[in-house]
phenylalanine--tRNA ligase (Chilo suppressalis), 441 residues
Amino acid sequence: MTKLFRNGHIFAALSNRCKYSTAPKSICTLHINDKEYQSDNFTNATPKIISYLGRNLHLQKGHPLSNVRQRIVDYFYKSFTHRGNPTFSVYDNLSPIVSVKQNFDDLLIPLDHPSRAKSDCYYLNKETLFRAHMTAHQSELLHAGLDNFLMIGDVYRRDEIDSTHFPVFHQVDAVRSQRKEELFVDHPDLQIFEPIFDPQYPEAFTNSTTDAHKQSCHTLEATKLMENQLKTHLLGLVQTLFGNDIRYRWVEAYFPFTHPSWELEIYYENQWMEVLGCGIVRNEILARAGPNNSIAYAFGLGLERLAMALYKIPDIRLMWSNDSGFLNQFNNKDVNAKITYKPVSIYPQCVNDISFWLPNNITVDTFINNDFYDLVRDIGGDIIEQVKLKDKFIHPKTKKHSLCYTIVYRHLERTLTKAEVNAIHKEIEKAITDSYDVVIR
């Protein structure tokens, strides 16, 4: 099993013919971790995104993400033991390259769900992508016979560019499953499943989620007991991180792979902030992966959001900084220490606008912003602080469509010169022209 989950040293290169090319993607090959992935019309992983593979910030000792990860692991190790050993196993080096089946199909995510869209995910080809959530490994671990586990790693999603969004971030996902004798220790007469459902033949039953309180295969007693455990354990985790006096609330939510589902929000800096999502695992997932006599809960949370709140880190890009002035504030410190980030220095912004006419076959409403964001990030790298859509314009006479974006440049470790910013801005103009046949205004 060790071999199955080993990530190893990752390196990657993208053929020059793929980069900003209008040529058919079928001629391009991506080389990652000694493997080749033939590109197709789904391929949208850029060289910049591929370069983040293998950084594993959550395992970098003294990094704020690693400190938060360790606090979460410590909480579960302390809270759940069996005969003196931790109940939960931890998987924090799983390969970030997964199949569409792992990322979507195994989790009952419908074919028309927006999370599958090319505008939301980084695809290597139509069958393979960078995982969009750590839940992508849930079924394989269940199939391996595990029942209580934490999955921790980097995930990849196409998104806007600002101080709280980055295309790569880190998640902790978990599953805790229990059999009847574990769940109903004091009430052996109670059952996990309704009499109409036979767990030995789950395929003979159509599980329904029309009841807001439970899945049709589960008894209300089993669901409510699991819900109580889930909320108690996760509230305990949040109180361990933020203090016992933190205000909180549970909000009903929807996830394709759990029912019922909730989000936990805390009142932080005068506003409600979501910190995690959770729910009772759909029984179809358990049955397909192997366990046919258990009920389980699952949850997922983002390490960046927690770390930025706990340490008052203002810009998510700092998580990727190698600057010693940033890292030394967390290195060689107790993971439970209360640390408030102190800016080393504030370097000035450089702001440039870019506007262009779109080709006739693209409108201001059909142009995909995330395509432009990735192009800008791929060229400008981590000095891109923010990209905002400033204006949409349709010429009243020619009916030609135009977009204008504001790009904010700022280096985290030095002052940028106007000349080098202008040079990068020219590269971006050339790339968007070559890639989308636009005309710079």
User: Anything to note?
Assistant: The chain has two domains: 2-311, 350-440. The chain is about 25% helix and 25% strand. The radius of gyration is 24 Å. The first strand starts at residue 12 and ends at 14.
